[in-house]
Model the fold of this input.
Amino acid sequence: MLRPWTTLVLVFTLLLALVVASAQSTDDGKNIFRFDTFGDEQLWTEALRMQHALTDVSPATALSVGLKVDVEALPPSVIDALKAGQVDLNDPAVTVQLFKLNAVVGVIGKVVGANDTLATVGITCALCHSTVDDSLAPGIGKRLDGWPNRTLNVGAIVALSPMIADKSTYQSWGPGKYDPRFHIFDGTNILPLNSPTIPVVIPPAYGLQDVGFETFNGDGPISYWNRYVGVTQMGGQGSFSDPRIGVTVTQTPDLVGPKLPALLQYQLSLRAPGPPAGSFNEAAAKRGAAIFSGAAHCSTCHTPPTLTDVLSGPNPSLPFLHDPTEIGTDATYAARSATRQWRTTPLRALWQHPPYFHDGSAASLNAVVDFYDGQMSLGLTNRQKADLVEYLKTL
Done:
């Protein structure tokens, strides 16, 4: 029989091993999130030839379409030169050097040869779901993983490809938006999925713990969407199949699937950022909290603590969803999803990521409150609306 102290030691050792394993998994997921292309060079290099397009792009142009630079990847001499204004941000050769330093957030460029030729280009999760704190200059700073890059103009970047004929369609998306239901990549070809294009805002990837069915339409859990995006949108080498939307892509070896558990672990570790000090009226926010759960009936669907009702159905393995007519939102995009319905959006760090709604049609929280006041016939007074907005800023 084990003595009590021996049992305690064994339990402590087991717990310690679990903590270490979890930390290692989170670290692995962080590296995957930031630096793993899943082999998507087959899209960005071989199909789109972006290595040729980006060779002629200056840092100033790259920053103007929302690409970010990780200041922690820059050597002190480069940081000093940037501070002194001694770096020519209009010189495309500087862009290549940033790729060589692996300093462009979410874009992995392989630079080779004595002439520093950009040979391959791939992207990572961080391209859309990270930004920087602008601590050195606009677009240059420390990484903020999980924050949606609402200045990133994915369509304009794709339109730089010499292989894209219909550039105007991609250019129509605008900053901070992407259409994941417009096309898919099968490992060789870019195939049409739906038309016309309906871009949606890039969502935050923080605050996902315990939320469940994280996509706009509740199509599946985080790893379902990671696989869909990793394979069909990023162009990673792997497999995805969902008969509900008529998409099946099979590629071997699978460079996406085995990395999803660690990637999930890291994503779940990303906490939603709290509101900056002084960014809301505390007294008004307190009144707004009562309106949120009272007169405005927000908490009926935005149920605490996750502020969504997606797991409130009788079967927790199935999402609880809403018909477009019920909430007054776009039925066309929903029809392109697997569920054809909408999930109640969990309200995470709303202060940080305007515009709102899946299509960005609400430019401010005031516009959100006005929309639902009309849609639900709430009859809120102007004072109640203002107080509710102040509360939403705290979430």
